[in-house]
Amino acid sequence: MENESTYLLTTPQDYAFASDGDDFLPLDCGQTLRHVTLRYECAGTLNEDKSNAILITHALSGDAHCCGKHHPDDRKPGWWDEMIGPGKYIDTNIYFVVCSNVIGGCSGSTGPRSIDPETGKRYNMDFPVITIADMVRAQHRLMKFLQIPRWLAVVGGSMGGMQVLEWSVMYPDEVKSAVPIATTAQLSPQSIAFDWVGREAIQYDANWQNGNYEEKVPDRGLSTARMLAHITYLSDESMARKFGRNLQDSDEYGFNFSRDFAVESYLQYQGRRFVERFDANSYCFITRAMDYFDLADRAGGSLAKSLAEATADFLVVSFSSDWLFPTSQSKDIVHALLKNQQNVSFCEIESSYGHDAFLLEVDTLGTMIRGFLAHQQEVKK
């Protein structure tokens, strides 16, 4: 990849629904969320005819900070900074990029740790159960606020890919192209099971207090949930290559139940870092939203019928070692689109990184996305 990028600073912004006079967000569960705020960031410049806007949708533990830095001294840039920025694959010299934290999140958008306007206290577990579609409805409100008539593309991996698919069928006239990466049209029983165990770990933590924790957070439970989930993001090959059976702090087994292996130390580190930046209640609500995601169910079990309303051109991407959202699930999406004679390109990228490949195989994935976006700009429809 060319290293011609210039330094990029991004600024977190908040869109409060009340600012445009309509403070209500109807939800699939039948409730209505009020006083909604979405945290978002933008990069690049919207062109005169507003035809170069791209929405980036994030995965479970992501946020609005997808590229650049908030301050020059920041140690880490946004979570997809290798992909997005001046001169990069999604070139902010060409495109206007928008990314928002989903509702239910804990990085600035309204979520379970926000204040309930009815009670003046935190929602906690009284927060309404949300869906992927609810997340997209909130993003659509942001789109209107930014006065963007149509996305050139909606791009996202994992849970972000679920949002991409929702956008394509909920607002077909407002999505020119869609790039769902390492994702699925319905969460599998195995994935639902992993989510259940993660939530159980959180809710069995003595500090959880039915979601009403304050100073003492359920750090053990959330850390365990993260460690379990992180295993699903990797592949056996990548773990063997990175850790093998290497011991961490000694040349001999400790013959106890403290950490002996390097992989144990790594997972412990990942769990600890996650607790520092994420909220346990948000984890529960967001994973439940993923559990409920089933695009085919709304059309009587037919994915093709559900996708029939989409008018976008699709680029569907999977990774060979991803066992969380395997290639077969991406092919289900592709076959449904082909059945409808819709425009779709598909690629399975060879990678040993597992599900995390959508964040790590930047050069291969980025080259594909760059070419696809360039074609979308050329084609008028």
Précis, in short:
The chain is built from eleven helices and twelve strands. It is an alpha/beta fold and 381 residues long.
Strand order of the largest sheet: 1-4-8-5-9-10-11-12
Q: How many helix segments? A: 11
Mean pLDDT: 95
The percent of residues in helical segments reads: 25-40%
Q: What is the CATH domain class of the largest domain?
A: Alpha Beta
Shape designation: globular
Structural class: alpha/beta
Overall radius of gyration: 21 Å
**Could you state the CATH homologous superfamily of the largest domain?**
Alpha/Beta hydrolase fold, catalytic domain
Low-confidence sequence ranges: 1-5
- Strand-residue fraction? 5-15%
Question: How many DSSP-defined strands?
Answer: 12
Question: What is the chain-wise order of helices and strands?
Answer: EEEEEEEEHEHEHHHHHHEHEHH
If classified by CATH, what would the architecture of the largest domain be?
3-Layer(aba) Sandwich
State the end-to-end CA separation: 30 Å
Sheet with most strands: 8 strands, mixed
Number of domains: 2
CATH topology description of the largest domain: Rossmann fold
Explained architecture:
The structure is a single chain. The model is unreliable at 1-5 (pLDDT under 50). This protein folds into 2 domains: 13-187 and 294-378, Alpha/Beta hydrolase fold, catalytic domain (Rossmann fold), CATH 3.40.50.1820; 192-287, Rna Polymerase Sigma Factor, Chain: A (Orthogonal Bundle). It has 381 residues and is an alpha/beta fold. An 8-stranded mixed β-sheet has the order 1-4-8-5-9-10-11-12, sandwiched between helices. A two-stranded antiparallel sheet has the order 2-3. The chain has a two-stranded parallel sheet with strand order 6-7. The protein has 11 helices and 12 strands. The chain is globular and about 65 Å long. The chain has helices at residues 132-145, 159-170, 189-203, 219-233, 236-242, 262-277, 280-291, 303-307, 327-339, 357-360, 362-378, and strands spanning 13-16, 24-26, 32-34, 37-43, 53-57, 84-85, 90-91, 96-100, 153-157, 177-181, 313-319, 344-349.
